[in-house]
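Hi P.,

Sorry for the delay on this. The queue was packed all week, but I finally got your sequence through. Input first:
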Amino acid sequence: QVQWKESGGASVQSEGSLRLSCQASGYTASRYCMAWFRQAPGKEREVIAAIFTASGATNYADSVKGRFTISQDNSKKTVYLQLDNLNPEDTAIYYCASTGPRSWNKSASLKDATYVYWGPGTQVSVSA
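Then the structure:
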């Protein structure tokens, strides 16, 4: 059974930074897409960053481009999200998710329906 677990969420002040981690258990695939999502109170869930594990190719939503960085350590089956220059609008529950084994498709990488295995989420709160 594939399980993902996020960690690193915290309460920070504006312009602060955090690094979120997402670690897998029970997943043996080597070619798949990982993504970070977030859902703010009263808003729909949005995909914000994606990475293809085989090549390291990445894709970002415009809302976080230039401030957030997705990376990976395949030896640890872990994906990271570095969040810099945070602002209160970044307050949300952050989730990681993966596809099954597949090739990279940049346009699909930022679509919610692409992902099938999810973590429970970690809270990020940013105060002014």
